[in-house]
Amino acid sequence: MSIEVKVPVLPESVSDATIASWHKQAGDSVRRDENLVDLETDKVVLEVPSPVDGVIKELKFKAGDTVTSSQVIAVIEPRAVAAAPAPVAPVGAMAIATPAAPPVAVSTAPTKAESAPTGLPPGAAFYAAQQNVNPADVAGTGRKGAVTKEDLVNYVKSGGGARPESRVPMTRIRQRIAERMMQSKNSIAMLTSFNEVNLGKVMAMRKELGEGFEKSNGIKLGFMSFFAKAAANALAKYPVINASVDGNDVIYHGYADISIAVATEKGLVTPVLRNVENMSFAEVEGAIAGYAKAAREGGLKLEDLQGGTFTITNGGTFGSLMSTPIVNPPQSAILGMHAIKDRPIAENGQVVVAPMMYIALSYDHRIIDGKDAVLFLVDIKNQLENPHRMLLGL
Questions:
Q1: Cβ proximity of 163 and 195 under 8 Å
Q2: 173-391 belongs to which homologous superfamily?
Q3: Per-residue pLDDT tens for 348-374?
Q4: Gap between the Cα atoms of 285 and 263, Å rounded
Q5: Pick the catalytic residue: 257, 342, 365, 372?
Q6: Hey, is 55 helix, strand or coil?
Q7: Max Cα separation, the chain?
Q8: What residues have CB less than 8 Å from 357, skipping those under 6 apart?
Q9: How far apart are CA 347 and CA 384, in angstroms?
Q10: Which CATH entry fits the domain spanning 3-78: 1.10.287.470, 2.40.50.100, 3.40.50.300, 3.90.1640.30?
Q11: pLDDT greater than 70 at residue 325
């Protein structure tokens, strides 16, 4: 009896999904729990595994088609599958399944696509295909001579490649990001306030206690836990920063569910740390590391991205010195971290060099007054410049 493979039940906030890519074709053998297809939603890419061992009898949709919850997308004929699975192309290889055909004489001269080495990182492989560049022609500067995306970009800029143009449809995630950014721009009276923080004491604490922290908790003590805990404390003092607008109502949240912006190859995602006010530094660092790993590997779940009352984004990891982050609706504020730079400052009547960071708070001026926004930023600054007081809850 044939088995139907259906689209997983999508949450109410996600109406449909797009077939991103099939990993099997009609007639292919498949093992139970082996990934059949990637479904791209507005927020994440979902993997749909095979429910049984068998052979693909029919694929009801092709890549690029839109599907909805519980819709049948494939039919599998259950049967025993050979113990040794068919060889799979290594990660990064651009392999396409083709039907068997009688042998024919072909030219032995390699084409660009045929001569391209496998094993490139996904971003580099995509760029090479987009620019029609044969990575074999590019001198690699990576480990053991590996070709990196930067090598490919420099090769194209130097005139080594052609000057192609290509039109590529936005992914569902990128479309959703664009939609939400325009929603934020058009519906929120957004304003940004700035301050600067001396992170000398935070850096000294990390240097002094970092090794013991890692031994005790199995994870490094980063900067984000300091900012997340400082934000949770400040949100409790200034609850309007943690509020959201719903029509003519203001909803005040008595908890700090903080969205942490994580950059991926497909776009920015914001997994949520729940109840940060009750989390330890180790729990914050562990949750962030887990989300970052899941984001890189495409393992984020829809529930990881839902909710959130406040957002923290760190452009400093890419070298940004200052920016005006965009509020993530329906939230009312977002904190922007930036690069740490040694700068001369006046301290106790003396000029000293200190590790300084500009911080920014973009907020919805419809419900948040400038006074609250500035006091919130000052509170963040005071906590980070006196981390021992923050740890004691002072």
A1: no
A2: Chloramphenicol acetyltransferase-like domain (3.30.559.10)
A3: 899 999 999 999 999 999 999 999 999
A4: 17
A5: 365
A6: strand
A7: 85
A8: 196, 197, 199, 316, 337, 338, 339, 340, 341
A9: 16
A10: 2.40.50.100
A11: yes
Closest to 11 in 3D by CA, of 44, 48, 50: 44
Cα 31 to chain centroid, rounded: 30
The strand pairing partners of 357, in sequence order, are 197
Tokens 């920015």 locate to: 268
pTM for the predicted model, two decimal places = 0.65
Distance CA 235, CA 273 (A): 14
Identify whether 365 is a catalytic site residue: yes
Where does residue 16 rank: exposed (0-12), middle (13-18), buried (19+ CB within 10 A)? middle
Between the alpha carbon of residue 133 and those of residues 153, 179, 388, the distances in Å are 10, 33, 54
* Residues shown for the chain: 394
Q: Give which of 341, 276, 265, 344 is closest to 307, Cα–Cα.
A: 276
Cβ-proximal residues to 175 (8 Å cutoff; 6+ apart), any chain? 42
* Eight-state DSSP code of residue 43: S
Domains of the chain, residue spans: 3-78, 113-157, 173-391
- Catalytic one of 137, 369, 372, 379: 369
| pLDDT tens figures, 238-269 | 999 999 999 899 999 999 999 999 887 777 88
Domain 113-157 coded CATH 3.30.450.20: no
Residue type present at position 35: N
388: annotated active-site residue: no
* Residue 235: both structure tokens together: 């949100």
